[in-house]
């Protein structure tokens, strides 16, 4: 199922970033993960913190244990407004994840090993599989 989730996510590369967005017309980060998982029958809440704290799935802390389709979570203290997480994406394999980025203005692929994401990595969740 993970590879199907990744395929579906990749089909939305370049879709514009829209704050609060959760449709193919535009996504914010958690709206993107929520929308992709909804295609597979999973109902995720619409916030990175709520997705991380929800009882769904299994938490994974080691990047080396990630599998394609896992949700990945980040927390930038300058952006989290006191919440547990500030950003979410979907791991696609080879140390990369796909996410709707406000900075890039659209859905992009980034490296988990980049200093920003590595420093702010909180953990991951395996929901499908």
Summarize the model shown.
The chain has four helices and eight strands. With about 130 residues, it is α+β, with helices and mostly antiparallel strands.
Report on this model:
With 129 residues, the chain is an alpha+beta fold. 24% of the residues lie in helices and 28% in strands. It has a 6-stranded antiparallel sheet with strand order 3-8-4-5-6-7. It has a two-stranded antiparallel ribbon with strand order 1-2. Strand 1 (22-23) and strand 2 form a beta hairpin. The model has no long low-confidence stretch (mean pLDDT 96).
Main beta sheet strand tally, sense and closure: 6 strands, antiparallel
Order of helices and strands: HEEHHEEEEEHE
Q: What does the radius of gyration come to?
A: 13 Å
Distance between the termini: 6 Å
- The shape, in one word, is globular
- Strand adjacency order, main sheet: 3-8-4-5-6-7
Mean pLDDT: 96
| Strand residues, percent | 25-35%
Low-confidence stretches: none
Helix and strand arrangement:
Blueprint: H1 2-10, E1 22-23, E2 26-27, H2 29-38, H3 48-53, E3 58-60, E4 71-74, E5 87-93, E6 96-101, E7 106-111, H4 115-120, E8 121-126
Antiparallel strand pairs: 1-2, 3-8, 4-5, 4-8, 5-6, 6-7
